[in-house]
Structures are given as structure tokens and as C-alpha cells.
């Protein structure tokens, strides 16, 4: 009985570890994607729209929406 319990505890720890690692990987991927998107949007905005204030407001809104969507 104790052996079975030990195996179950080990498995649950392994599952928790895998979940944590995948969550961490998702966050890193999200940050990289956000960075690339911001750089691309910044380039497009620099060409299309010279208004920095408008860009900053739009960037903050985009970040807020992306966080909410997760």
C-alpha cells in the first residue's frame, strides 16, 4: 500500500513539473512573439504614422488585450 502511494506521489510530482515547464515555455514564447510583433508594428508605424503618442497608447492597449486574452 505504501509503495503504491509513493508511486502515485512521484507521478503527481512529475505531472506538476511537466506542467510548470510547459507553462514557462508558453510564457517565453508569448514574450518573444510580443517582442517581434512590437518591433514589426513599430516599423510599420514609423512608416505610416509619425505620432509617437498614438503609437504608445496603441502599444499599451495591445499589451493589455494580449494579457486579457491569455
Describe the structure.
By secondary structure, the chain is mainly alpha-helical. The chain has one domain (2-69). The chain has helices at 2-48, 52-69. The longest helix is centred in the middle third of the chain and has 47 residues, at 2-48. The model has no long low-confidence stretch (mean pLDDT 74).
Give the topology, please.
Blueprint: H1 2-48, H2 52-69
Shape: rod-shaped
Main sheet record: none
Strand content of the residues, in percent?
Answer: under 5%
Q: Helix tally?
A: 2
Average pLDDT level: 74
Q: Roughly how many Å apart are the termini?
A: 41 Å
Low-confidence stretches at least 5 residues in length (pLDDT < 50)? Answer: none
Written as H for each helix and E for each strand, in order along the chain, the element string is HH
Strand pairing plus helix content: what structural class? mainly alpha
Percentage of residues in helical conformation: over 70%
Counted up, domains total 1
Q: Cα-atom Rg, whole angstroms?
A: 21 Å
Number of extended strands: 0
Structure, briefly:
The protein has helices at residues 2-48, 52-69.
List keywords for this structure.
70 residues; mainly alpha; 0% strand
Amino acid at each position: 500500500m505504501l509503495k503504491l502511494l509513493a508511486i502515485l506521489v512521484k507521478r503527481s510530482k512529475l505531472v506538476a513539473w511537466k506542467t510548470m515547464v510547459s507553462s514557462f515555455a508558453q510564457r517565453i514564447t508569448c514574450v518573444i512573439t510580443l517582442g517581434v510583433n512590437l518591433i514589426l508594428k513599430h516599423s510599420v508605424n514609423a512608416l505610416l504614422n509619425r505620432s509617437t503618442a498614438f503609437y504608445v497608447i496603441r502599444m499599451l492597449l495591445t499589451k493589455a488585450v494580449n494579457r486579457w486574452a491569455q
